[in-house]
């Protein structure tokens, strides 16, 4: 079996991408994700890859646009303010149906904000990763091992559905070290008959484009894309359920926050409160069915985030008024403590009686 | 085994993050669940540095240690910041070369080690952090001695091969105190 190594989240993301056959990285440094770029800068030139530090985030995402157009596995990585700069390019990638990987190691915002962990880009990632009608796949790992595993899935599904994929992490996951094993599986890149690459005049040339001046054509491409999104929502939503079976109070949390919630749920159980957790692993597609199912058995729900309440809107939509959905969040780079979350669970448990 | 939720804190440059890494790796060598979370703010650049290390038989929930049962403090601001957070019964190891204060709490086990002074006396400059890890090992047996040696082997890069023996010497010195 492959060796378990202790690795920083950011470095593990980079190594996983390399093992996925991604040899083209374009980025611009920003705390707390700089180790992704640093790792790529060190490794890629040694294995025949390309590491390019662009002059800006806008430039980096457009280099990804170019590489992806040529059918090459490519990625970029940044943190919140940098992702905002990339959104124009992400929209072009969506509009051109191109696969790529984007990593967001979130920090506090808005504006330049801070550099400590945050989950306040949930809306951006899931609702408006760029202008126009469109979505990207968004994966929300909660451990370093899961970060690695999801990088493999992100590339695979991005190519399956021809759309960008994002790993939505945060400063805590990016900076922390945990044991990790890299899966030893063969990576198969998808056929890309649409790629604008060399063909020696043997076929019709491909065009990568997101400009449609005729409204009916643009509506058609958007509708086609949204039909694909329906399939994705049906097939690709992922969730982990923790002690939900008999749970009276179900907490919904993703990413690093779900680790704190897990501790709080354990502590609540020790105090005789039937608590459980639903942890979205994909936040787009949002696992609405699993959340709705949880609302059938629980009497109250609580959403915990490192934001002032973003995912809670999706939770409330999924629950559809069946049970009250409370919210607890810290923001600006503050990580909630298990004790704080336990306090919220107890408060709700008191109200449930 | 008990769970260890440790905070190691001091100035940037004292090897705080490195000693945390050695501790975490020692746990990994024993197939434990481990996590290591550094402070990464502007304070790292010349100010205080700290890291949280968890070693447990169970999967680690929060890698951010809020209430440590082990504190290694290598400067006064860090000592002041974390001493009240240590859980009763916890272990506190203080570099008494750099921290003049005496702990007023009676519900924690405090050990004063003049690690920085010892390091300089014994030709182990820059390894006060590892002397303190040695002391921690003696007082808590957070892992087996052999696992710490393996951890040092993993953590000291090949370029600094010559420092491995020094690190082991520092562990041994800490354990002898």
UniProtKB/TrEMBL annotation, chain A:
The keyword Transport does not apply. Residues 15-230 form the Pyruvate flavodoxin/ferredoxin oxidoreductase pyrimidine binding domain. Residues 247-341 form the Pyruvate:ferredoxin oxidoreductase core domain. Keywords: Oxidoreductase. One of its GO terms (molecular function) is oxidoreductase activity. InterPro entries: 2-oxoacid_oxidoreductase, PFOR_II, Pyrv_Fd/Flavodoxin_OxRdtase_N, THDP-binding, Transketo_C/PFOR_II. Gene3D superfamilies: 3.40.50.920, 3.40.50.970. The keyword Calcium does not apply. Pfam families: PFOR_II, POR_N. PANTHER family: SUBUNIT OF PYRUVATE:FLAVODOXIN OXIDOREDUCTASE, SUBUNIT OF PYRUVATE:FLAVODOXIN OXIDOREDUCTASE-RELATED. This is 3-methyl-2-oxobutanoate dehydrogenase subunit VorB. It comes from Ligaoa zhengdingensis.
TrEMBL record, chain B:
It holds the Pfam family POR. The keyword Protein biosynthesis does not apply. The keyword Oxidoreductase applies. Gene3D superfamilies: Pyruvate-ferredoxin oxidoreductase, PFOR, domain III. InterPro entries: 2-oxoglutarate_synth_KorC (IPR052554), Pyrv/ketoisovalerate_OxRed_cat (IPR019752), Pyrv_flavodox_OxRed_cen (IPR002869). GO terms for molecular function: oxidoreductase activity, acting on the aldehyde or oxo group of donors. Residues 12-175 form the Pyruvate/ketoisovalerate oxidoreductase catalytic domain. SUPFAM superfamilies: Pyruvate-ferredoxin oxidoreductase, PFOR, domain III. Keywords: Oxidoreductase. This is 2-oxoacid:acceptor oxidoreductase family protein.
């Amino acid at each position: 079996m492959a060796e378990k190594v202790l690795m920083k989240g950011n470095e593990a993301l980079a190594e996983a991408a390399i093992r996925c056959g991604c040899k083209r990285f374009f980025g611009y440094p920003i705390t707390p994700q700089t180790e992704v770029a640093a790792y790529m800068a060190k490794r890629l030139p040694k294995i025949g890859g390309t590491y390019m530090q662009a002059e800006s985030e806008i430039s980096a995402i457009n280099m990804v646009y170019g590489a992806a157009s040529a059918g090459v596995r490519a990625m970029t990585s940044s943190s919140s303010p940098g992702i905002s700069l990339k959104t124009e390019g992400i929209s072009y990638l969506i509009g051109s149906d191109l696969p790529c990987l984007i990593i967001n190691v979130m920090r506090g915002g808005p504006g330049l904000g801070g550099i400590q962990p945050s989950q306040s880009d949930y809306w951006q990632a899931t609702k408006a990763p760029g202008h126009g009608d469109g979505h990207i796949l968004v994966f929300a790992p909660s451990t370093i091992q899961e970060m690695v595993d999801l990088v493999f899935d992100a590339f695979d599904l991005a190519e399956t559905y021809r759309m960008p994929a994002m790993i939505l992490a945060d400063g805590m996951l990016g900076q922390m070290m945990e044991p990790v094993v890299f899966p030893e599986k063969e990576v198969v890149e998808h056929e890309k008959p649409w790629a604008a690459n060399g063909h020696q005049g043997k076929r019709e040339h491909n065009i990568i484009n997101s400009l449609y001046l005729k409204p009916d054509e643009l509506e058609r491409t958007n509708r086609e894309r949204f039909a694909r999104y329906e399939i994705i929502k049906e097939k690709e939503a992922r969730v982990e359920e923790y002690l939900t079976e008999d749970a009276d109070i179900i907490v919904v949390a993703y990413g690093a926050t779900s680790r704190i919630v897990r501790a709080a749920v354990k502590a609540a159980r020790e105090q005789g409160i039937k608590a459980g957790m639903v942890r979205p692993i994909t936040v787009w597609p949002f696992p609405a069915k699993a959340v709705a199912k949880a609302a059938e058995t629980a009497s109250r729900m609580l959403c915990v985030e490192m934001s002032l309440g973003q995912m809670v809107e999706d939770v409330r939509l999924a629950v559809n008024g069946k049970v009250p959905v409370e919210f607890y969040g810290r923001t600006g780079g503050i990580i909630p403590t298990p004790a704080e979350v336990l306090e919220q669970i107890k408060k709700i448990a008191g109200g449930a009686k | 085994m008990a769970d260890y939720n440790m905070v190691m804190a001091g100035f940037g440059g004292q090897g705080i993050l490195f000693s945390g890494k050695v501790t975490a790796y020692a746990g990994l060598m024993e197939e434990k669940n481990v996590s290591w979370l550094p402070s990464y703010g502007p304070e790292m650049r010349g100010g205080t540095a700290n890291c949280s290390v968890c070693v447990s038989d169970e999967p680690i929930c929060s890698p951010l240690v809020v209430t440590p049962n082990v504190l290694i403090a290598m400067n006064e601001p860090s000592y002041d910041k974390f001493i009240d957070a240590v859980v009763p019964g916890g272990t506190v190891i203080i570099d008494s070369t750099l921290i003049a204060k005496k702990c007023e709490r009676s519900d924690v086990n405090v050990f004063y080690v003049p690690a920085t002074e010892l390091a300089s006396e014994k030709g182990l400059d820059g390894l006060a952090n590892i002397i303190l890890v040695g002391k921690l090992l003696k007082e808590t047996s957070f892992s087996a001695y052999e696992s710490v040696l393996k951890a040092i082997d993993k953590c000291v890069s090949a370029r600094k091969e010559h420092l491995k023996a020094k690190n082991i010497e520092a562990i041994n010195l800490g354990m002898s105190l």
